Amino acid sequence: AFGIEHRHIHAVRKPVRPRIGELNSRVVLTRAGGLRPLLSQLDEIGAPTGRMLESAGLSAELVDDPNTLIPLHQVHQFVEVAAATQGLDDLGARLACRVSAFDLEFLGAALRRAVTVYDYLQTGIQLIGQVTRSERFWLTLEQGHVRFHHESPGRACLGRQHEDVFCMAVTVRMLRQFLGSEWHPVHVDLLA
Question: Which of 47, 53, 40, 51 is nearest to 87 (CA)?
């Protein structure tokens, strides 16, 4: 049996550390649908999203299809440009306040079917790699505490930091929907 005691869930971010010889040997891809919440928020404030996409080597046509695979480093570059040009130093956290994991394309549809916290977490664990290659979630039990881990690919950069904060904040918000608004993680680590 699997039990989660809500006051003992930890949210942890762990960076991917490539092995020697793996650096630059592959391009990490992600689905364009992950950009939709950010594009919507930027459009609402009147930001020039087309120009910002182009500055990151992307185009509105390319990201229009949510299933198009695009290089993750270009997404991070776009996020950096958006944050800098729009004065949004807290872009990841700000976006997380407006987005539910249920809004995230096919992943959201699968997560909506979860009826327990365990179902929700296991669905995320099983499907996250289909959104961004090499990204993963897992759970460990440490001294009676359930620890939630998230490993994110890509080089360390400001765009990735916004993504890390976004992912952590959305995860905490979603767990609070299941566990109640009084729940909060005992400890959160965002590792570089």
Answer: 47
